[in-house]
Amino acid sequence: MACYGDLSSATPAAFAAHQAACRRCTVCADQGIIAEATPTFSGEWGAKFLLVGQAPGPVERESRRPFSGRAGKELDRWMLRAGFESAEEFRRVTYIAALMRCFPGRNPRGTGDLRPPPAGIANCAHWLDAELRMLRPRVLIPVGQLAIVRFLGHGSLESRVGKKFGERPVMVPLPHPSGQSRWLNDPENRERLTHALALISQLRRRLA
Ligand code: SF4
What is the CATH number of domain 11-207? Predict the structure, then answer.
């Protein structure tokens, strides 16, 4: 497996090799953590935005396109509110990855998807670490509490959404766009989301 710990390896060709290696990754299936490996991510060399979600769902497992289900449609609507001309424009300038980039499976009750298990997140971390080093994104958008904690440590969503953190990359956390989340039922939290999208809009204009 290639190592990208050194910035001198950050070239388009090395990045393409990284993506190809990631698409072939089966380590979690080999270890029995998931039934089938279907690494799901999108984006190109040069992306200024890096969006990190939790894990793909069953829709994404089939499409192999991140955020292509119902939550993705909501995310696309948020990005229109953040000033992108279209969902396609947002996705063109954004690398979209996840803490665990294969579908973790359904929960035993069949009422939803499993949270990505720690072993799967640990196995997958080096892919994300390499993308951070190679892309050096200007803006990092962690989506959902699990991804936010990965970058900012423990803290409430209320203390994170609507604010920006750091310099390079600037981090702008978002809640998960899943309709199952009740966090956005609170008007104050919807206001926090509006602030976060305004921050993304400012950064988008600055980087245009
Ligand atoms: S979740 Fe990540 S580490 Fe595990 S098989 Fe998929 S791509 Fe590989």
Answer: 3.40.470.10
φ/ψ (deg, to 5) at 155: 170, 160
Q: CB count, 10 Å around CB of 208? A: 8
Going from N- to C-terminal start, the domains of the chain cover 11-207
From the CB of 134, is ligand 1 less than 6 Å away? no
Residue 87: its H or E element: helix 87-92
Say what the pTM is. 0.94
The residue behind tokens 């070239």 is 11
User: Between 31 and 178, where is the model more confident?
Assistant: 31
Please tell me if the CB atom of residue 104 comes closer than 6 angstroms to any atom of ligand 1.
no
Q: How confident is the model at residue 9 (pLDDT cuts 50, 70, 90)?
A: low
Q: Which atom of ligand 1 is nearest to the CA of 100?
A: 1
pLDDT band of 64, cuts 50, 70, 90: very high
Of 179, 175, 171, 152, the closest CA to residue 57 belongs to 179
Q: Is the dihedral of CA 44, 21, 118, 72 positive or negative?
A: positive
